[in-house]
Amino acid sequence: MDEEQASELGEEEVKEGGRRSGSGVNLSVTKTGSIVKAVKNYVKGIGATPQWPIDEAAMDRMESKADVGRIEEMLAAVKKHYISSTDSCSLPLHIAKPEQSIFNIQTHTAFKKMSTLRKQDLIRRRKVIVITDMPVDECDFDEDGLSILAGIDVSVDIQDQSIDVKDGDYSRRLKYGTLRQMLDSSRSANGRILNALNFPLAACDRTPDGGIASDLAAWTLTENTAWCNGFCSLFPTRDVRWGLAANAGAIHWFHIDSDGFGTYVDVVSKNGKKLWLVARPVDNPAAFFRTNLFSLEDYTMEGPNEHKFIIEAILLAPGMRLYMPPNTPHFVITISDAICVGGHFYSSSGIRDTNVALFQAFTSGGHITNTAHAASRVLLRRLAFLWHSNIVLGQNKDSDRAASHVPDFTTWGDVLDLL
């Protein structure tokens, strides 16, 4: 969206009761109701314990009248797949029957000991990996914490989710604002529900696990070779490392991430929580390879799409990291004001899903994803160079760490990956 379009949206906001203030929109408009009241009872069983601690005050200030019904519908779809336990309560699959769940939950210590081959296999099987007991430098949701992402008085794209959507036009919610305005909103009982997703972190030092991220392995192993050096291109950190900030009640409807990327995310703010809902196919495991998966005729990004999806959910909090394979439809609700840091990656074992997701994004565009990164192609080329150096030139054959990121011709699945 260019500045002229954003300015027009800002003027529309003025007509609806907001007003321009400095470099952004004044976002102090009253709200009523509560999305979190719809998720309150559900969330208490979603984490690693039956009673997850929830900030009641944060719950009571969350609202979006047009969205509450959809949230209730989504959570009802999740609870359909709960398992009854002996103490008369129902539990999510990742607790009751973890072997059947899309989530694979590991402690930080266990995950670090896991082989690269095993990690790649989890991505191949489309498992969403959740790491617990992660070391984390927590920050507060305040001026200091938000400055991790950007200058708090710098104008950035912000979704104002207190604005009603008309005729499916979500661009009405896109405004220019500042992190200071988001902070002010978090401190007001009548504050707006704001969601900011565009904070490139060019100097980010948070990297994904080397056993998961084949793009990192490829970059290291092919550096200083022909066509793979500093004269050709630099690692596109700004495109694949980023931060997020959101007020309690912010929603991101069903989508897949851009450019066939896998995604990892850490919640870094104290008491920050996000409910992460993930879809898997109803029956055929290969259903997400279908090119009409997101066709407008039988898919809606605001709904559970139960004819296509089985939905599971988990509550992310500080000390947890989520790794999500490419081409994974997901839906996110911010339960309490949260700052997150994360990024994107490519995994060799998920390359087929990457290719499908690239096609889906090309054909469906903004209907299923919200951005694009041209620099992603540099990473894919480096991955191809790694495969060539190993398969054709015979390099790095003695390194299990390197070989785990290269297709193994003794398995049919890896042959398909290469094709």
TrEMBL record:
Residues 205-362 form the JmjC domain. Residues 1-14 have a biased composition (Acidic residues). Coiled coil: none annotated. InterPro entries: JmjC_dom. Residues 1-26 are annotated as: Disordered. This is JmjC domain-containing protein. It comes from Laccaria amethystina LaAM-08-1.
